[in-house]
Amino acid sequence: MGKQLESRFFKDVTNKPLQEYPRPQLKRDSYMNLNGLWQYAIRPIDVEFDGKYDGDILVPFSPEAMLSGVNRTVTPDDLLYYNLEFEVEDSFISDKTILHFTAVDYACNVILNGQGVGSHTGGFYPFDLDITAAVRPGTNVLQVEVADPSNQGVGAKGKQNESPNTIWYTPQSGIWGTVWMESVSDDYISDLKITTDIDNDTVTIIPTTTAKDFTIEIYDSGKQIIKTKETTIKLTDYELWSPENPKLYDVIIKTKNDKVESYFGMRKFGIGTDENNIKRLFLNNKPYFHNGVLDQGYWSDGMLTPPTDEALLYDIKMLKDMGFNMIRKHIKIEPLRWYYYCDKIGMLVWQDMVNGGNGSYNPFCIAIIPFFNINVNDTKHYKFFGRESLDGRAEYERDLERTINLLKNQTSIAMWVPFNEGWGQFDSKRITNKIKEMDPTRTVDSSSGWHDNGNDFVSKHIYFYPIYVPRDERCYLLSEFGGYSKPTPGHMYTKALFGYHMYPTKGMLQRAYKKLFEKRIIANIPKGLSATVYTQVSDIEGEINGLITYDRKVEKFDRAFLKEINSRVHF
Hints:
Layout: E1 32-33, E2 36-44, E3 55-59, E4 78-88, E5 96-101, E6 104-105, E7 107-112, E8 115-121, E9 127-130, E10 138-147, E11 174-175, E12 179-184, E13 189-197, E14 202-209, E15 215-220, E16 223-228, E17 232-234, E18 249-254, E19 259-264, E20 269-273, E21 279-283, E22 286-287, E23 290-295, H1 309-322, E24 326-329, H2 336-345, E25 348-352, H3 363-368, H4 390-407, E26 413-417, E27 419-420, H5 428-438, E28 443-444, E29 447-448, E30 457-462, E31 475-482, E32 484-485, E33 501-502, H6 506-521, E34 529-535, H7 559-566
Helix pairs in contact: 1-2
């Protein structure tokens, strides 16, 4: 592990971090945040726990992260134990009490007041447990036991690697998202599905509830414009959502004893043909160029966990101010508040699924073969892609369903990206069709980079050879490029630096970037280029190709410089 750096938000972190309501599209008054100082212990997995704790840990930061106060590594041979005593007011408890975990890496058992209340597997996904029978007024004791196979497992691991280097990063374990509780009535609303249809001027809002009767209220800038019991609602004189006009409408849904707040934006994503008979990405039935940045969501002091809510907002606002209109969320699921800010500010999102597999594939074959226009059939050669494990493939599909269900209502998500560069890729045509059946409202970049299996897009990753856009009957995406790097002394994690093109000064970096965009991006848009994803938002550990440093303290480019170039990146 390198030298962890305090981010620009480090001093804003208190002993009660990330207190904001974690679920903006299903918000209710009943809320109890359990983030804060817990007890922890790390023990060998084959040794019975002695009940003695090693000290305090600041949840929701992983023990490997600086902000946790622990700075210890949990290996695949360890178990991580958590303990929290907390008070519950009698007035808080209603018909049903639910305990929510935003993310626990990787597999956990949960015990409340000596009763097992549930378990979960999957390190990137929120889950909830019904604790009605175990919770009580007064003092409660919550215990969580966590095991993490890291990259030794076949499940979703993202960029975590026990031997971090270049584009692979230090693994983290345990609780890394907000832990919270709510207590609800029997007729509570447990979920919503919101579908907008600008072609028919409707929004469909379907609550999941046992209540036989509910009402839906829609508000425009605080003024109620609709109150109905219908689930498909006709709208008039509405504004379309776009990055230039991120118009959101607020919603309140009520049953007899429950009330939740939500919101939606009226927009439509798709693929169409422009006036020159070129396939393009469409927004609201018009060609729209997606000018984006790769974002892996790592923090120098919190790792996968943002230090503060303002930190989540900071990156999005910065990119917007630089003139970008899209973020490719790379190999990570963010807290729901991140997507809320993209909805609210007006930032398109391409959402990757988190990669997995057993890692036994040959990186040379995965990375080099496609440059000779050889695409391996991912329905026949599972071993080639590290997907021999039937359990691993089944877990990927379960996680895919979790991801789409979790994020289904987010206004800003325009694209699903099931596979990246062959990492754990399998059955991509079938998986693509599955996603389209689950969600026909968004586009799907089936295999970003490298092993093209003939779906809707040509999706290229080009870092070293010249960017060339041949005429193709499909829509052409440059889904990764750039990676221009500049060392920033005093703001680097390690001396082992990695970048695709290295420049020693800001002037040289900006001149190279300008030439890249003018000669290879802007010039190729008329030829068919429909979207770009520049690598990347921030440095991460030894990878120093960010627009800003890992600690978010130094911006390597002038914002006005980037904004001027981006003003010319459009159809």
